[in-house]
Amino acid sequence: MAFPTIPGALTSILSMLFIIILSTQTSQGSKAEFVTCGSILKLINSDLRLRLHSHDVKYGSGSGQQSVTAVDVSDDYNSHWMVKAPMAESCKRGAPIKCNTNIRLQHVATKKNLHSHYFSSPLSGNQEVSCYGDEDGEGDSGDHWAVVCNNDYWRRDTPVKFRHLDTGAFLAGSGRTFGRPISGQGEIVGVSSQYGAYTDWQAKEGLFIHPGELLPHQHPVHSEL
């Protein structure tokens, strides 16, 4: 049997421990009021009560890219997403995300970005949502989403919507569930109207970076709603 090299094994173990800590610890400080650049969080669909999720399982149709689904468990490490700036741009670590500005959401476990394009979703025939990018987390313009909200900033206690820049579709659940090999997981899609069903998302468990804090591996501050 072939074993991974020590550096590779150590990296995997450290990554897993970091994600487990995100899922289980709570902050000893005050809760962050806003979602900030560099934060790692889970997103729950306000109506379906399912968390946005991905994994190294590819769609069997459409683009064939890494699938994005929704799950009802709160402690699944495959439901963590990092808030990043758009390609070729930067955002200050810990800076609150303004409403109606553009971001990328990077899947922490696989390093790929939440993505969409003009492919049909496998169950409902809406617009497919996938994860895309190379091992460094770089993809293309299909990874850009606008945070649609009515406040000045993306608040943790208020649902927001995500509008895909390339296609104008809104991130949503379809209310349908997959069979094998991901039985029971919900379909995630893009829909044409923000007023369609299941388009509201709220920040949940995660690590929320505060302005002026050290990097997560130096001094993680954990915060849960």
Low-confidence stretches: 1-30, 214-225
Biggest sheet architecture: 6 strands, antiparallel
End-to-end CA span = 44 Å
The number of domains: 1
Record the strand order, biggest sheet: 9-8-5-4-1-12
General shape: globular
CATH topology: Trefoil (Acidic Fibroblast Growth Factor, subunit A)
Q: What is the CATH level 1 assignment?
A: Mainly Beta
The value of Rg in angstroms is: 17 Å
Q: Compute the number of helices.
A: 1
In terms of structural class, how would the helical and strand content be classed? mainly beta
Topology, number of strands: 12
- State which percent range the strand residues make up: 25-35%
CATH architecture: Trefoil
N-to-C SSE string, H for helix and E for strand: HEEEEEEEEEEEE
What would you note in describing this structure?
The protein is mainly beta. It is built from 1 helix and 12 strands, in the order αββββββββββββ. The chain has one domain: Trefoil (Trefoil (Acidic Fibroblast Growth Factor, subunit A)). It has one helix spanning about 5-25, and strands at about 40-45, 50-60, 65-70, 80-85, 100-105, 115-120, 125-130, 145-150, 160-165, 170-175, 185-190, 200-205. The strands form 2 sheets. A 6-stranded antiparallel sheet has the order 9-8-5-4-1-12, with no helix packed on it. Mean pLDDT is about 85; it is low at about 1-30 and about 215-225.
